[in-house]
Amino acid sequence: MSTGGAPPLISVVSPIYLAEDLIDDLTDQVKASVSEITEDFEIVLVDDGSPDDSWRRIEKQCRSDYRVKGVQLSRNFGQHHALTAGLATATGDYVVVMDCDLQDHPRYIPQLYEEITGGYDLVLTRKRARAHGGARNWTGGVYSWIFNVLITDRRLRDHKGIGNYSILSRRVVDSFLSMNDRHRHYLGLIRWMGFNAGVIEIDHHERPKGSTSYTFRRLLREAMVGITSETERLLQLSVVGGFVFVGLAAVLAVTLVVLWATVGFLRGWTSLMVVNLLGIGLVLSSLGVAGIYLGNIFEQTKQRPLYLIREELNTRPSATETDDE
After folding, report:
1. Fewest CB atoms within 10 Å of the CB: 5, 17, 140, 231?
2. Number of compact structural domains in the chain
3. Does the pLDDT at position 67 exceed 60?
4. Model confidence over 206-217: pLDDT tens digits?
5. Is 324 contained in some domain?
6. pLDDT tens, position by position, 99-156
7. Same domain, 134 and 279
8. Chain-wide mean pLDDT for the chain?
9. Are 96 and 112 within 8 A, CB to CB?
10. Are the beta carbons of 99 and 16 closer than 8 angstroms?
11. pTM of this structure
12. How far apart (Å, rounded) are the C-alpha atoms in residues 37 and 18?
């Protein structure tokens, strides 16, 4: 194949974490799927500081095929930062983004490509049903509802079943990389950009090997990042809650005075303690919300890089790639 240094038609980007048993299957299935479109492609695997042997498996794939490109981050920066590193490395005219767990099957890549070449800037995928456990599906639904209630911009609202599996045009990739949000959420940024987007429906499968790295605590943190990075509504609600409690306190004070003057009022600590506890709880929760936003500002003002790269493989043109056959 002659490339002459030209960028490939399609890049496939996948962040890798605790997936050593899936990397070989992932690359094989991606190759088989993309080969239905073109042989001019690349696969970018980003090791997000995985503590297992994921990088060794990536090295093996890079040695066997120069179209597989490996990026090893210096530590675990998080899925969305690893995804950003992959998009920065990808050079294709179109870039497919997918998770490494094979729950979203690579066989949909030709359909994604066909859809985006029909006039879209990007194409997202909607899962017909999620193959997670009942508890995770329920919590995911609750998060989606809370997120949509808090988000005022309709373009940014979460649509049930939409996931990271998608294909982007080069214009969308470059626009995504131009944003330097420290607390970044892939789908949130994609929606905010407002490019013309298509959607296809896909089946969601159970993870074939291993278990997910997303614990409840990590999912909760991701949910908080997703909400606080896209809306300041929580701050507004804390202010509204403060005024509501001030109003309730005023009404309660008048009521107690009237009862004392008319029928008398039994002295005691119950009502006082309830009001105090409610007031303290409101103050602490409001301070907590403000603290989260201040923490986000603090992290953003540091101006540190979004990620650091320890090692790269096949990311620069080699003699094999540039020689004409």
Report:
1. 5
2. 2
3. yes
4. 876 766 555 556
5. no
6. 999 999 999 999 999 999 999 999 999 988 665 555 555 565 665 666 666 665 555 5
7. no
8. 81
9. yes
10. no
11. 0.73
12. 30
Residue 273: domain span: 233-301
28 shares a domain with 168: yes
Question: What are 229's two structure tokens?
Answer: 């990075």
Do you know the residue count of the chain?
325
Residue 20 within a domain: yes
